[in-house]
Amino acid sequence: MRRKLVMWKSERTEGVKGATGDAVKVRRGDAATMRPRVPASPRLPVPASPRLPVFLLLVALLITIGCRRDMQDQPKMKPYRGTTFFNDGLSARQPIAGTIPRGFLRTDTEFYTGKKSGSSGAPQSTAENPFADDVDTFPFAVTEETVKRGRERYDIFCVVCHGMTGNGDGMIVRRGFRRAASFNDDRLRQAPVGHYFDAITNGWGAMPSYAAQIPVQDRWAIIAYIRALQLSQLNPNAQPGASPVPGATPGPLASPGASPAASPSPSAGGHD
Amino acid sequence: MPQIFHHSTNALAKITIYGAVFIGVALLWVAVELNRSSWNTGQWVEKQQPVQFSHKHHVGDDGIDCRYCHTSVETSASAGMPSTNTCMSCHRQIWADSPYLEPVRASLRDQKPIEWIRVHDLPDYAYFNHSIHVNKGVGCSTCHGRVDDMPIAFQAATLQMEWCLECHRKPERFLRPNDKIFDMTWRSENKNAAEIQQGIGWKADYKVQGPEVLTSCSTCHR
Predict the structure, then answer these.
(1) I want to staple A122 with a disulfide (CB 3.0 to 4.6 A). Which of A87, A113, A133, A166 is the partner?
(2) Which residues of A117-153 are buried (b: 16+ CB within 10 A; e: fewer)?
(3) Phi, then psi, of A228 in degrees rounded to 5
């Protein structure tokens, strides 16, 4: 009875200690020192239970769970993930030259190029009329939302050089970039909206193309905001009669559907 | 038959058994803490890049908007990395011959993109979309920290699921007005009752889904 009790305790302790994996040796030592005192019996020695090694193996497996990262790093393509499969290292393929994705036909020349014709037969720019082929009205109805969107986009992309008021004194200019054009001088006040679109799309002077950063609709929105900026920066003491902002009639901002209150128009801003 | 063990061994055995429980708990705690530590998550670890680009300078000193470079953040899953041309917009004239910028010039010369080191690497089994977050009141700095104060970019959050769920369970704690999304100085969290109340208002404005949708498995693991 006593012997059985001691053996039970011994096994039990070993099992518990095995769970944490330490001090097992000590207990085994106890068992070893204990055994010689116990009279040999056909039931001893007890065959080692397979449970302990299996348990330890499971614990070891648990520990190694973090070692494989197949789920974290799956062999699939995500943005900016390169590949060794293609020679150029890009995981995405370029469309075949001349392919036009659905919805990208861009037949609206004025909207997508800011040019009246955009073809080679277009009127050439001359000294008197440097912007002969540029459209001089917005190719869509300018609303308050357009101007607000334009302001947001202007503050992201243009303000760095052209400055908050459009005077061409943005932070990058202060850091040493060539002085950006001021929207508040006569040349640009008179320039048609198509010229601005051309400059944003293809660059102008030291200004690079922003076509990759600014979608077409946003470019027009920015131009609408530039017109608003120009009106806001008008000198109230300017000579009477001098047409402040693009004097042409209808003005570049005059567009069907634009409410006078919502969109700045030459008539609204022409108080001088 | 003499006692094999002295009487005091009983106490020793009890202490050992109780001790085992404490050791077990302690080991578990250590494992959990290690799992959350930056050693495992990569949090706070600055990643050296091929170009010594400083967000602190470009965002903090120059005041350039996040979207000037990360143009697609409002419209797609990926925030977008600037092309070499974007760098060169300014650096063709500013710091044009700095040795720091040689990798950028080389990239433009060879027409080979700069291979930036990814700072935020979500596991592939987690779906994440930038546009839905910035359009529904989650600001850049909520997840990315004060980028305008990082000379070298690092991961500000653990990116662990418990961190995602913190907001997906209670979005009102972190939402902000939609004209402050790209504002680095906006408060990091809605803490007091008044701010939480504002958060609940924004949550309604943005029509943020309830927790039953936001914490559904397939919302992120799809």
Answers:
(1) A133
(2) eeeeeeeeeeeeeebebbbbbbbbebbeebbebbbbb
(3) -65, -40
Residue range B23-74, pLDDT digits in tens: 999 999 999 999 899 998 999 999 999 999 999 999 999 999 999 999 999 9
SS3 A126: coil
* Interface membership of A37 toward B (CB under 8 Å): yes
Token readout for A176 is: 């040493």
What residues of B are in contact with residue A34 (Cβ under 8 Å)?
A: 4
pLDDT tens-digit map of A55-110: 888 887 777 665 667 788 888 888 888 888 888 888 888 889 999 988 888 888 88
User: Is the CB of residue B78 less than 8 Å away from at least one CB of chain A?
Assistant: yes
User: What ipTM did this prediction achieve?
Assistant: 0.86
Topology, domain A109-269: Cytochrome Bc1 Complex; Chain D, domain 2 (1.10.760)
Contact B186, B139 (CB under 8 A): yes
Contact (CB, 8 A) for A83 and A91: yes
Number of A/B CB contacts below 8 angstroms equals: 77
